[in-house]
Every structure is written in C-alpha cells, then in structure tokens.
Design goal:
By secondary structure, the protein is mainly beta. It is built from 10 helices and 40 strands. Helix 2 packs antiparallel against helix 3. The N and C termini lie far apart (about 85 Å). The relative contact order is 0.10. Bound molecules: sulfanyl-(tricuprio-$l^{4}-sulfanyl)copper and dinuclear copper ion.
Length: about 625
C-alpha cells in the first residue's frame, strides 16, 4: 500500500472510530492541561471501541514458540513501583524484574547488606519513581555494559550491571530536586550520564528564600558512568523536563517549561513560549577546568552558571510546555514534542556550532521545521528509515511522519509529511521502537506505552493496568499486534538486540558486588566457601554458613535476644539456575543466594525462643527440608 493510501485510511479511521470520544477530546484539548485532565476522564466514559489484533500472518511474526528465545531484550522502567522490568521482545514475556529504588521481598534488595551499601543512606526510602532507562553506548551503538535509570521521587540515579542484571551503584544528586530526564553520552562512549532536575528550589535549599520563587533554580548534572560521581552541574532557567544527547558527544538538549518560574498550574501555562536548552559540553568542561564555577551548600560539585545569556548554553524558544525530546537516529535532529502545542520542533544539530559561535541572527534559526502532528504530542521514536513516530496523548494515537518531508513542507514545498495515524488504547506517553535510541534503529517493532487501559482487560477494580501496545512497523503501514498490561507505571523503555548483552550465569567469586562481605569474613578469619562458624563480637554476632542443596552448612545457631545478627550465606552450588534463599521466620529477613554468590543480611534477634530459617527459592526435591533453627537465648 502506498504511503498516501495509508494516510487516508488513517484519517478515515480517525473520524469513524467512535466519533463521540474523538469530538469530545478534540473540543476540550485546546484549553490546555486542565482540559487535558478533563478530556481524559470523559474519554474513559465515552470510549468503548476495541481494536482487534490482526491476521494470523502478523501473529506468526511475533510468535516465539516454547523453548525459543526472543530477538531483543526490552528494559521497561517501573515508574513509581521503582523497579526495572525485563521483557523478551517480541514475545513480551516478562523475564526478570530488577529492583532498583524499591525494596524487594523476594531478592532481599533493600534488606541485604550488599544492597544497603549500594543504596547508601537512601536505603531508608522504600519507594522510587523510575522513568527513563538507557543502555550504555560505544560510538552510538549499545554496548550492553550498563543500564542507567533516574528516580524522580528521591532524586537519585542508579546503574544496573548488565552482566548480572543487578543494580550496582546509586547516587543521590546534590543541589537538585526530582531527577527526571536522563540520557547518556552516545559517543565516543558512555561516558557521562546526564540528569535533569525537574523542580526549581532555593540554592542552597537550606531554609532560605522559602517562599521566594524568584530565587529558585534547577540544575543539569553530569555523572561519570564509571564511578557514578557527579562531575559537574549547570544552573539553568526554568524547569527541565526531558533531554537527549547527540551522536557526536558535543551537545545535549533539554525541554524546559515554566520559563516564568511559576509555582501554580495556571502560572506554569501562562507564557506562550518555553525553551529547548542546548548544552555545549566542551564549553562546560572548559569552564570547570578553568575554575569558572561555584559550589553550593555542603556539596563540592562544581556548578557552572548556564542561565540565559551564558556561554555554555543556548535557549531556543519553542511553543509552551514542551515535553519529550528525542534525538533522531540519523543524528540530524533534536525533536522536542509540543505537548500543549500540536507541533514538534525539529532542531538541526548541524547548526548548533553556528548558534554557539553567534553566527545566527536568531536562536530560532536552528529550527529545521515545526510540523503539526495532532493533539498532545509527547514523545518520538524512529525506524531508521527516515520516519518518526510521535505519540499524541489527547488524540490517543501514534503518528507516523517523514522527517525529510516535514522539513520540505516547512520550507514551502507542497508535500505531505504525515504517513499514518494509528489509534492506540489509550492516552500514550512514551513510545519506543527497537534499537531506536541508537544508530542501529531497525524499524521492526514499536511500543506505545499507554497510560490508560480502560476496557482492554478483565476488570480488576478501580485501579487499572496500563497498556503497552506492540505495533509492527516493518511494513509501510503500522499494525497493532498486541496489548500488554503493565502495573504502575512504565514511562519509557529501551530495546536492544540480544547479542548486545552478555551475561554471567554463575557468580564469579571475585565479584566486587560482595567483596566487602568477603573482607569482613577474612577479618574474622573465615573462608566463606568452606567454613560454617559463629563469631561473637560483643552484642554483634556474625554467622557464616554455606548452602549446598538441600543443606545449609549450619542446621542451628545460638544468639541472644537483642543481638545484632549478621548472617552470611555462600552458595557453593555451581549449577546454573540453582539459587537458594535464606529467610528467618518472624524476623523480616529474606534474601536470594544464587550460584556461587555470597550474600549477607543483618537484623536484630527477637524475643527468646526457637525461630526456623529456611531456603525460600525452590532448589531441590528436598527444598522444603532445607531449614535450620536460630535459638534465641534470654539475656541474663
Ligand atoms: Cu512520563 Cu518520560 Cu517522565 Cu513523558 S515522562 S510520559
Ligand atoms: Cu535451597 Cu530451596
């Protein structure tokens, strides 16, 4: 089918499909964000159409028969559940959950000594809000070393090692509040992890200027992806939202709303223009090198002034309240979604040198085009064939459009750039295509991460699942192939080829993940691979034991009421998939101990009595029998 026919069909569907809902949403959309919220609610009541999945040929393409492996790893953020979920794509089988900012009952994340060391002081928070997962790069391609993700709720950035699929570093970003947009340096290598702080606060935020928003500022931070240290920060105007980096390592850009520093909703929508802030990374590094910075409060991180008029940033005016910003995979454009404007703004990266060197009359001269796509554009993804796909929240659609034609249209040529509008169900946020955050975008599958599922799944009471819809984009026409319910609330995803990730199936004994625990054992003169020992150290007791299915190295140990007990378990089974667990009944103690792993957990011994501990990962025919007793004596 030709592109034009597809386009007509898309438009036809748009009008025929439940006209009541469409008309209502359209009419209220123009009144702005308040209207958006209203339209969403009413849309839910008025809607009711069901798009059926397509032909058997389509189903065959996405079929991964039992025993076969998927072609891609999909990493989904878990939103305010605080975790990361791993799917096989295209089957959309959930393979793993990686606890990050949350605490995990199964693995013991947030309870074990190893996870507490990684989380640092912030382990006391049991929640997080994980939005933007991104896989590290070498030369614009994913290299499968790490996945980085932000925590909006508690201002953190975490790193997940992709050899073991475990969080291994976490940093709380100073001077900032609510890390939202997060992206990685794509070239030559990651490199920097760039993090937007969303909210403006007094600097330093120590009780001064409490109700004086004129003196509130936010920051853009660069974290070293290897050490996870915050290297430097840039003070900016307005609230930073979403960002992306280019494919050369020279520039990054962020949407920035609330240029007038309002603290109310009305105020935040008042100005007609907001910005895309462009950051010149070399100039920022140079400013830091030359000592052209200050520090704020207790933090010693260099803060470079990047407010309007500075040498290290440029503020490109765009229609008000922009949201997503995604670099096209050909490296040509930063594309910022209008949200309250039906347009996206294409910023030509090749013109940014001119912008910084002052060779342009107007900052808007870097705008290559500002195509109109539909109501509520939020995020854009790519197929590597010159087409972009933008979610339009209010219209509940994914819009496929051609970038080159959009530019020609902007320059006065009579060409149509919209290829197809596909209904999704309902109210999409991010969308994401396979490999579409790298120069290897292959245009096979696209996911629309929809905020509302309404009538798409069996009802489960007032709280609904979200709906991540899978769309086949390999042909001329987008085809909806699958609905995937998700629990609160994947904002974003990244999909990489399976050969881009290399995992370790059995822990290496010298893994730094538990090196400190091994050091502690050595200080106690314990070889954790062999010894089963109880060491008393005042009111502290360290219990070392091995686990080999179906036995723990100790079938009992004795402590006193109120002792601080640390149990260290080393799994000496070197069989793939043979994980044990360690759980002490009535003590809130539980952890995973995978093949060749050493894991430890510290707790306070309860009231005098007998407490069983048991293995809680099914490991053996005698798994139920894999247990022992903790004898708690009264203090005399
Ligand atoms: Cu939900 Cu990327 Cu945090 Cu847009 S963001 S939807
Ligand atoms: Cu060991 Cu179950």
């Amino acid at each position: 089918m030709s592109d034009d026919k597809v386009k007509d069909k898309g438009r036809g569907e748009q009008h025929l499909d439940n006209p009541g809902r469409r008309r209502f949403l359209g009419a209220t959309a123009t009144v702005g964000a308040l209207g958006m919220a209203g339209a969403t609610g009413a849309g839910l009541l008025l809607g009711g159409n069901r798009a059926k999945a397509g032909s058997s040929e389509r189903l065959e393409k996405m079929d991964v028969p039992p025993g076969d492996l998927d072609e891609y790893y999909g990493f989904w953020s878990g939103g305010h559940s605080g975790e990361v979920r791993v799917y096989g794509v295209p089957s959309m089988r959930e393979i793993m959950r990686i606890p990050v900012f949350n605490h995990c009952s199964a693995s013991g994340w947030g309870m074990t000594d190893e996870s507490k060391r990684i989380m640092g002081d912030s382990y006391r928070f049991t929640n997080g809000d994980a939005h933007h997962p991104h896989v590290s790069y070498t030369d614009g391609s994913h290299d499968g070393r790490y996945l980085f993700i932000n925590d909006k709720a508690n201002t953190r950035v975490a790193r997940i090692r992709l050899d073991i699929f475990k969080t291994d570093k976490m940093v709380t970003v100073p001077n900032a509040q609510a890390i939202h947009g997060l992206r990685l340096q794509k070239a030559p290598r990651t490199g920097y992890v760039f993090a937007n702080a969303e909210y403006i606060v007094p600097q330093p935020n120590d009780g001064r200027d409490l109700d004086d928003p004129e003196n509130y500022w936010t920051l853009w931070s660069a974290i070293d992806g290897e050490t996870m240290e915050v290297k430097w920060q840039v003070l900016v105007d307005g609230n930073l939202d979403n960002m992306d980096a280019d494919y050369t390592g020279k520039y990054a850009a962020s949407t920035c709303y609330n240029s007038d520093k309002a603290v109310t909703l009305e105020g935040k929508m008042a100005s007609e223009r907001d910005w895309v802030v462009v950051f010149n990374i070399e100039r920022i590094e140079k400013a830091v090198e030359e000592g052209n910075y200050r520090t704020i409060g207790d933090s010693d991180v260099p803060v470079v002034d990047g407010r309007k008029g500075s040498e290290v940033t440029r503020y490109v005016p765009v229609p008000q309240n922009p949201h997503g910003l995604n670099t096209s995979t050909d490296g040509k454009y930063f594309i910022a979604a209008g949200k309250l404007s039906p347009t996206v703004t294409m910023i030509e990266i090749d013109k940014l040198d001119d912008l910084f060197e002052g060779r342009l009359d107007d900052e808007r001269d870097v705008v290559a085009a500002e195509p109109e796509l539909g109501l509520g554009p939020l995020h854009t993804t790519y197929d590597g064939r010159g087409n972009a796909y933008t979610t339009v929240y209010i219209d509940s659609q994914v819009v496929k459009w051609n970038m080159d034609r959009a530019v020609r249209h902007w320059n006065g040529e009579d060409v149509d750039y919209i290829i197809q509008k596909l209904d999704v169900h309902y109210q999409p946020g991010h969308n994401h295509a396979t490999l579409a955050e790298s120069k290897d975008a292959d245009g096979k599958w696209l996911f629309s991460l929809n905020k509302f599922s309404k009538d798409r799944f069996l009802p489960v009471g007032p709280l609904h699942a979200e709906n991540d819809q899978m769309i086949d984009i390999s042909g001329d026409e987008m085809k909806l192939v699958k609905d995937t319910p998700t629990f609160a609330e994947p904002h974003d995803a990244v999909i990489v080829r399976r050969d881009q990730i290399e995992t370790t199936q059995i822990w290496k004994r010298d893994d730094p993940y538990f090196a400190e625990t091994i050091e502690m054992a050595k200080a106690d003169d314990v070889d954790v691979e062999r010894d089963n020992k109880v060491i008393r150290d005042g009111d502290k007791v360290r219990v070392y034991m091995t686990s080999i299915a179906p036995n723990f190295g100790l079938n009992k140990f004795t402590v006193k009421e109120g002792d601080e007990v640390t149990v260290v378990v080393t799994n000496m089974d070197s069989v793939e998939d043979l994980s044990h667990g360690f759980c002490v009944v009535d003590h809130g103690v539980s952890m995973e101990v995978s093949p060749k792993q050493t894991a430890s957990i510290t707790f306070t011994a309860g009231k005098p009595g007998v407490y069983w501990y048991y293995c809680n990962w099914f490991c053996h025919a005698l798994h139920m029998e894999m247990a022992g007793r903790m004898l708690v004596e009264a203090r005399s």
